[in-house]
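Technical annex, item 7. During the second reporting period the consortium partners agreed on a shared format for inverse folding records so that results from different sites could be compared directly. Each record opens with the tokenized structure and is followed by the designed sequence. A conforming record, contributed by the partner at site C, is shown below for reference.
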């Protein structure tokens, strides 16, 4: 573990300690999710952990007393979410009304998750029906009371099911491991899926539902597509191309453009990059190589770009070129290409 990682670990332990003093164990899930997120950002930028003099909890929320505002302010938006969660958790514990009517599990769960999360709602309905049977059949293990479920929601791409206070331990474990399994499926249709960051939001969608969501969000209109899909390195990052370069649009699909955009964005914000003389790094082209991998050419090269180039190569290797969903390398006799099943099938159709 290097120093940066270690200092952030200390920061985390400090904040977590304060939360632990004020929240129930289930509230810490959001903190852990937040922390995992921040670590990714932090490692990409190599930010040192802020020196925190004090962490306190009051009725207004969580306060981090710290001089390094530049770093702390970046993580504060997410930190506000954690505070919000803790406040909500306290409110829940004092009100304790159950959102699940055990005589209408299907109706209750759909009401909480909504029709657009039918995949998860169907699975959670089955899971809670099973839990209800277990309680009826083995009261000596699961207790003789159906627990109150105080909240069901999607959060950071995950499924959260919070039990009220005094829930039987075996019942709670039974619910939570089933929730963990459901999280590995598509929110929309129960197809296999994994959590993914897309243009600032986190979802767990299969490639089919993901593409349907993109169409819904961007309404098929390129004009309303996110900026990264119109990436021109010469226009967006003029420091990264030579002075005579008027335009440099990577010759790759939109899915990969999202990854390239993300990497260049991170690079341009990194302290190390800001410390370099302008014109130290010049990208000459970005395209898909013969081997189906992303290929980045430089007219001026500096070691600093290497980790970002490695990251782009790695991310593009597991990202569908066409849509940005998680993809697989599809190998045919004459070429290989990274595609999701949606784009693979769409391509097959248009080919023949
Ligand atoms: Zn789906
Ligand atoms: Zn795709
Ligand atoms: Zn393989």
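Designed sequence (site C submission):
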């Amino acid at each position: 573990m290097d120093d940066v990682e270690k200092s952030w670990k200390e920061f985390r332990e400090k904040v977590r300690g304060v939360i632990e003093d004020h929240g129930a164990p289930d509230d810490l899930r959001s903190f852990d999710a937040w922390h995992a997120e921040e670590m990714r950002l932090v490692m990409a930028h190599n930010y040192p952990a802020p020196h925190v003099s004090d962490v306190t909890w009051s009725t207004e929320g969580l306060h981090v007393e710290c001089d390094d505002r530049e770093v702390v302010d970046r993580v504060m938006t997410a930190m506000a979410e954690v505070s919000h969660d803790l406040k909500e958790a306290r409110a829940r514990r004092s009100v304790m009304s159950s959102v699940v009517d055990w005589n209408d599990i299907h109706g209750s769960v759909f009401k909480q998750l909504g029709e657009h999360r039918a995949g998860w709602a169907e699975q959670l309905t089955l899971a809670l029906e099973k839990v209800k049977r277990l309680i009826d059949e083995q009261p000596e293990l699961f207790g003789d009371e159906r627990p109150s479920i105080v909240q069901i929601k999607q959060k950071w791409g995950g499924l959260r099911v919070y039990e009220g206070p005094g829930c039987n331990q075996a019942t709670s474990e039974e619910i939570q491991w089933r929730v963990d399994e459901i999280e590995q499926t598509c929110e929309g249709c129960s197809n296999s899926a994994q959590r993914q960051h897309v243009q600032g939001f986190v979802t767990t969608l299969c490639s089919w539902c993901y593409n349907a969501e993109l169409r819904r969000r961007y309404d098929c209109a390129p004009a309303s597509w996110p900026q990264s899909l119109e990436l021109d390195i010469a226009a967006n990052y003029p420091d990264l191309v030579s002075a005579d370069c008027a335009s440099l649009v990577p010759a790759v699909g939109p899915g990969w453009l999202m990854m390239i955009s993300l990497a260049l964005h991170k690079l341009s914000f990194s302290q190390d990059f800001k410390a370099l003389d302008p014109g130290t790094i010049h990208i000459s082209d970005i395209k898909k190589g013969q081997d189906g991998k992303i290929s980045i050419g430089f007219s001026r090269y500096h070691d600093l770009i290497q980790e970002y180039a490695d990251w782009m190569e790695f991310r593009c290797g597991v990202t569908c070129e066409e849509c940005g969903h998680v993809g697989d390398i599809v190998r045919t006799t004459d070429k290989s290409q990274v595609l999701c099943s949606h784009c693979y099938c769409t391509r097959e159709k248009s080919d023949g």
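Residues 69-95 form the longest helix (27 residues). The longest strand covers residues 52-58. All partners now use this format for quarterly exchanges.
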